[in-house]
TrEMBL record:
Gene3D superfamilies: Fumarylacetoacetase-like, C-terminal domain. It holds the Pfam family FAA_hydrolase. Residues 32-233 form the Fumarylacetoacetase-like C-terminal domain. This is FAA hydrolase family protein. InterPro entries: Fumarylacetoacetase-like_C, Fumarylacetoacetase_C_sf. SUPFAM superfamilies: FAH. One of its GO terms (molecular function) is metal ion binding. Keywords: Hydrolase, Metal-binding. The keyword Metal-binding applies.
Amino acid sequence: MSTTTTTYAIDPQKINSLPIAGSQTRFPVARIFCVGQNYAEHSREMGHNPDVEPPFFFQKPATAIVADGGKFPYPSISTNVHHEVEFVVAIGKGGKNIEEAEALTHVWGYAVGLDMTRRDLQGIAKKTGRPWELGKAFDNAAPCGAIYPVAQAGHPSSGSITLSVNGETRQNGDLSDMIWKVPGTIAYLSTLFELRAGDLIFTGTPSGVGAVQRGDHLIGAIAGLGEVQTEVV
C-alpha cells in the first residue's frame, strides 16, 4: 500500500490560533466575521439610526489575530486608529441556514477581543463607497483573549464589557445592549456564509470608541471571560 505526500511550491502558512482558558491546547482560527454597529449608542455616535438599519458584516483575516499580551504595532498610512472592545463568539460546529433555536449548539466558546480600526481610512471608504478592508482588515487588527469553553462560561447574554486606556475607562457597556443577540447573529450570518469550525464572530462594540497613541496600554474585559491586554507600539 502506497501513501502520497502532498508537496507545496512554497511553505504553507502557520495555523493562527488562540489559547484556551485552563488548557494547554489551542483554538485554531479559520475566519473572523465582525458585526457592524450592533450597539445602539455606538451606532448613534457613528451617525446612524439603529432602529431602521439592518445588521451588516465585514471580515478580518485570521492573520490579524494578536494573542493576549502581544503588542499592537501602530499601522501605517493612518493617523487616527481607534479601539473597539467586542464580545467574541468561537464557532465549534459549522453549518448553513442554521435555525436560531439551534444556533447556540454551534458555539464552542467565548472571548473578549479588540476590533482595531484605521478610522480615517474607514471614513474615506464610506465616502467613496469602497470596501472597508483598508480600515478594518490590516495586520494585527484583532487582538483577542483566551477562549472560554461553553462548559466553563455558559452562554453569556448579559454582563459588563469595558475597555480602559492607561487605566482610564473609555468604553463601558453591557452584553444585554446588543441589538442582534448571539443566536440571531449566527442564524443570519449562516444564510450568507456556510460557517466553519474555527470561525470567530466579533459581535460589535459599545459606545465610547476613541483614538489610541503609541505607548498606550489597552485592557478589554468582559465579566466572566477575562481580559485582553495589548500595548500600542
